[in-house]
Design brief:
- The structure is a single chain.
- 41% of the residues lie in helices and 12% in strands.
- The protein is α/β, with parallel strands linked by helices.
- It folds into three domains: 355 residues, Rossmann fold; 213 residues, 3-Layer(aba) Sandwich (Rossmann fold); 127 residues, Rossmann fold, CATH 3.40.50.
- Strands 9-8-10-11-13-12-17 form a seven-stranded mixed sheet. Strands 1-2-3-7-6 form a five-stranded parallel sheet.
- β4 and β5 form a beta hairpin.
- α2 packs parallel to α5.
- The protein is elongated, with a radius of gyration of 29 Å.
Length: 749
């Protein structure tokens, strides 16, 4: 194309406003555009200004990109009628916004006196450290005051957590009645949640999961006040959406009210208002299709003429919502052409002047400043929080006449039993804590770890979900942002991979992309690792941590023993509740019910219940044979048990003694403690039960020790790069006790 389409679209609006003639009769400012409508002439002019502001910011984004001073060109051009949604929602209705919701954001911020959406957006375009939404880390719509948690650009990945927030609002009302817990979010009891996305994104598995979860919850009579807003422009980058696809897909779903907002600005306004009113009053999921067009391609790098003709592009530009809104306002007498010209000229001038100033504002220039909000560290505060005493009367009511720490050695317990007791104490310590997942309620979990929680604390706090890990983690995020403390369960580690972007792209990124303004504290319990006997194959014996360890900001706990599990759970909950941290609590399934260590019946893997106040935090390792200096073995989980068994055999065979360190925390790794123990020993062996390539921690431990100057003979024992097969074949690819013993002898040779 010979001419810049952005300029042509701007000229189209200017030309129209010159050609339009004022209506013979002008409306008063409070006169509605249609009988019975709440859209008055004055509100309509404000709405038009918000639409023009959104458009002008999109123009500025492309200009900044041309000049090398801006870094974002995915625009809202053609979607500006979403301003109706922003004007009609309350600012205490949480909004999870898609990147084309600029008009919505401008209209929403208008309702907050003193807000500066124009300036804030330009700071974001230019990646300024003063950007109030993300601190220069990303271009996102976000505002703590306006209840807009920043969303990343992953397609539709925000839908499940928006549903989670809506579910949590309903659950919070129930908790207020049943558990005397005041509304933790501080939001009014009639708030609703809005979630916007595009027509192409509505096909994504994550979007389907979110909408399905909302319908499922409503079918079970749970209030789920969520407004899904599908901004339908008929295209996903270059791929055309079939005609009426959105209506045909969502228009006749049960337990989902459907509204189609199309037509003139006042018709769209009235439909949006009805959809919001329905959602608020019925506390039910509502799907609102908003008809839009997409101007200028997907982003600045998208050359539309590669897949559309000039005639098609011009036909789309003729449907520009600013043109239609201007015609309608002038035709009805809600505004004169001169008034609209003044709005356009004034808005463009304000944006241009602010743009020239925004590019001069400070940028992020220090790595420590970039990562500061990612994973807040406050160990002393965590320790104080974890040590808060619990009322003895309430504990005796929960546990029975004898508290778990009062039980003497004949009643030492397994890892599973101790985690169950730790969860009981946790629910007493944190009345805002929720436990949920597949089979965790009435059944008490596949392995019995949540037994009696529902009976003792009620269905409002311990409940079953549908079988969908994406939904489980979405509910966790929404509940956390609503002020609750979720402890969701993922039934098996292998199942997490169906939904891991909810941790990687969403939960762990929120503090980072909101500059610490928003957080979603949670402790995600995951049953995992291998060595289950007589059950499962790979999907119940997943020996890979790699996908968890690479997530920035995620803390990863992996207890091996029951007493450690309780102390680490206390620490994890303190990290979440005081610093907003996301913690993965990986529980080795094969050790859940293990009783013995060296011989059958020795019960050396059973433990006492730790006293109140005892806590384990990242960096604190477990040490066995602390006086031994011949060999240091570093391991965790099943590998720890194998190492202790092999160490005893080595001492019996050769007289050489082994110091064994239990990592406990796999992210961050306790490298400083490992260096201290490594310097005290002659040789080092790392036993990593996970697969050799990128799945465990051995490579990071070796690199960490070498980089810190440790100079000792060093070897590793790791699993083979294989999925875990059934039955005894699993032993051929997993680390065995004999493998560990052989590794010890080799490094000592």
């Amino acid at each position: 194309m010979s001419a810049d389409r952005v300029t042509l679209v701007e000229q189209n609006l200017d030309r129209l406003l010159e050609e339009l003639q004022p209506a013979s009769t002008l409306m008063g400012p409070t006169q509605p555009l249609r009988p019975g409508s709440s859209l008055t002439a004055a509100r309509a002019r404000d709405l038009f200004e918000d639409m023009v502001l959104s458009r002008s910011l999109d123009v500025a984004a492309r200009e900044l990109k041309k000049r090398g001073q801006g870094f974002y060109t995915i625009s809202s051009a053609g979607h500006e009628l979403n301003a109706c949604v922003g004007a009609l929602l309350r600012t205490d209705d949480p909004c999870y916004l898609h990147y084309r919701s600029g008009g919505l954001m401008m209209a929403r911020m208008r309702r907050l006196p003193g807000s500066t959406p124009l300036w804030d957006t330009l700071l974001s375009f230019s990646a300024s450290a003063e950007d109030p939404a993300s601190g220069g880390r990303h271009k996102v719509w976000g505002s703590r005051e306006a209840w807009v948690p920043p969303q990343t650009s992953t397609i539709a990945s925000h839908v499940p957590k928006a549903v989670g927030m809506a579910f949590a609002l309903g659950r919070a009302r129930r908790l207020e009645v049943e558990a005397d817990l005041p509304q933790p979010s501080g939001l009014p009891t009639d708030s609703i949640v809005a979630c916007t996305f595009g027509d192409a994104s509505s096909n994504h598995a994550t979007a389907l999961s979110g909408v399905n979860a909302a319908r499922y919850a409503r079918r079970k009579d749970n209030p789920v006040p969520i407004l899904f807003v599908c901004e339908d422009n008929g295209r996903g980058i270059s791929v055309e959406t079939p005609s009426r696809w959105v209506e045909d897909t969502w228009g006749s779903q049960r337990h989902l009210s459907f509204f189609d907002a199309r037509g003139s600005i006042d018709e769209v306004w009235d439909t949006v208002e009805l959809a919001i009113r329905t959602c608020r009053s019925a506390r039910t999921p509502v799907f609102l299709r908003l008809e839009t067009v997409r101007l200028w391609g997907h982003a600045g790098s998208d050359v539309e003429t590669a897949y559309r003709t000039v005639e098609e592009i011009e036909a789309t530009e003729a449907r520009d919502p600013l043109l239609a809104a201007a015609r309608r306002l002038v035709e009805l007498g809600a505004a004169t052409p001169a008034q609209l010209r003044a709005i356009v000229a004034g808005t463009r001038a304000r944006v241009h002047a602010a743009m020239e100033e925004a590019v001069l504002r400070p940028k992020l220039t220090d790595a420590s400043a970039v990562i500061a909000p990612l994973a807040p560290e406050a160990p002393e505060q965590w320790r104080v929080e974890a040590a808060r005493p619990l009322p003895e009367e309430a504990r005796r009511e929960a546990f029975g006449s004898r508290l778990p720490e009062e039980q003497d050695s004949p009643t030492r317990r397994t890892l599973a039993a101790r985690i169950n007791q730790g969860l009981h104490d946790a629910m007493l310590a944190h009345p805002e804590l929720l436990v949920f997942g597949e089979d965790v309620g009435r059944k008490g979990g596949v392995y019995g770890l949540t037994q009696n929680l529902q009976r003792r604390f009620g269905q409002a706090r311990c409940f079953d979900t549908l079988l969908d890990e994406t939904t489980i983690l979405g509910v966790a995020q929404g509940a956390a942002q609503a002020g609750l403390l979720p402890v969701p369960e993922i039934q098996y580690l292998a199942y997490l991979h169906n939904a891991i972007d909810q941790l990687r792209g969403e939960a762990c990124s929120l503090q980072f992309f909101s500059n610490g303004a928003f957080e979603n504290p949670m402790v995600v319990r995951i049953a995992g690792l291998a060595y289950q006997k007589g059950f499962g194959g790979h999907f119940h014996n997943d020996n890979s941590l790699g996908a968890l360890r690479e997530i920035p900001g995620l803390a990863l706990a992996c207890p091996s023993r029951g007493d450690d599990a309780v102390r680490m759970l206390r620490g994890a909950l303190a990290m979440a509740s005081t610093s907003g941290r996301v913690v993965a609590f990986l529980e080795p399934i094969a050790l859940y019910h293990e009783r013995d260590l060296h011989e059958d019946g020795d019960e050396a893997w059973l433990t006492d219940y730790p006293a109140q106040g005892e806590v384990l935090l990242p960096g604190e390792v477990g040490v066995y044979g602390a006086e031994s200096t011949d060999l240091l073995v570093i391991s965790y989980a099943n590998g720890l048990r194998l190492s202790l068994r092999a160490a005893r055999r080595l001492e019996q065979e050769t007289g050489q003694r082994v110091r064994v360190v239990d990592l406990r925390w796999l992210n961050p790794l306790p490298l400083e403690a490992l260096v201290e123990h490594a310097e005290a020993c002659s040789r080092i062996l790392v036993v990593d039960e996970c697969r050799a390539t990128g799945a465990g921690v051995a490579d990071a431990i070796v690199a960490g020790l070498v980089e810190r100057g440790v100079q000792r003979p060093l070897r590793t024992v790791r699993g083979l790069d294989s999925y875990v097969p059934l039955a005894d074949a699993a032993n051929l690819v997993l680390v065995q006790e004999d493998d560990v013993l052989r590794g010890m002898k080799e490094v000592l040779a």
